[in-house]
Amino acid sequence: MTKLTHLSAAGDAHMVDISAKADATRVARARGRVAMAPETLALAIAGQAKKGDVFGVARIAAIMAAKKTSDLIPLCHPLPLTRVAVEIAPDEALPGLRVEVEAGVTGKTGVEMEALTAVSVACLTIYDMLKAVDRAMRIEGVELVSKEGGKSGDWRREDK
């Protein structure tokens, strides 16, 4: 079984010491979705939500969340992100909105948590922007899709 790096030998939670690790280019991709009524999706696409531009606000929220991940997740290191790209696309078949984030850094630790946090906050923002018309929306499928770089190498979700 793989050792959990955020636990000391005594089993106490601690921040991992990354000082001896070499800088490497690292990229992580995450995704999630917000399922909603077809009428709610149509409202978002038409730009007619009372709170404003659902896509634009959620995109900015995702970027801000990625930058603040270490303030939200207790054992995360603050990272000098080099890239946060956010895609929000309608999915008529769901129906709802799909969110994908790619985060990048050149540093000593990965950006998986930043990508996942960004997706989560984008989905929550979409919910907030549209909840007045559809409280039954569901946030689903928040997951890491892939990671590249670092000592542990590349990883890709098989069911991607």
From TrEMBL:
GO terms for biological process: Mo-molybdopterin cofactor biosynthetic process. Transmembrane segments: none annotated. The active site is at D128. One of its GO terms (molecular function) is cyclic pyranopterin monophosphate synthase activity. PANTHER family: CYCLIC PYRANOPTERIN MONOPHOSPHATE SYNTHASE, MOLYBDOPTERIN COFACTOR SYNTHESIS PROTEIN A. Belongs to the MoaC family. It is an enzyme of class 4 (lyase). Gene3D superfamilies: Molybdopterin cofactor biosynthesis C (MoaC) domain (3.30.70.640). The keyword Lyase applies. Substrate binds at L75, C76, H77, M113, E114. It comes from the Bacteria. Residues 15-150 form the Molybdopterin cofactor biosynthesis C (MoaC) domain. Keywords: Lyase, Molybdenum cofactor biosynthesis. InterPro entries: MoaC, MoaC_bact/euk, MoaC_sf, MoCo_biosynth_MoaA/MoaC, Mopterin_CF_biosynth-C_dom. HAMAP family: MoaC_B. Catalyzes the conversion of (8S)-3',8-cyclo-7,8-dihydroguanosine 5'-triphosphate to cyclic pyranopterin monophosphate (cPMP). SUPFAM superfamilies: Molybdenum cofactor biosynthesis protein C, MoaC (SSF55040). It holds the Pfam family MoaC. Homohexamer; trimer of dimers. Its EC number is 4.6.1.17. This is Cyclic pyranopterin monophosphate synthase. The gene is moaC. It catalyses: (8S)-3',8-cyclo-7,8-dihydroguanosine 5'-triphosphate = cyclic pyranopterin phosphate + diphosphate. Pathway: Cofactor biosynthesis; molybdopterin biosynthesis.
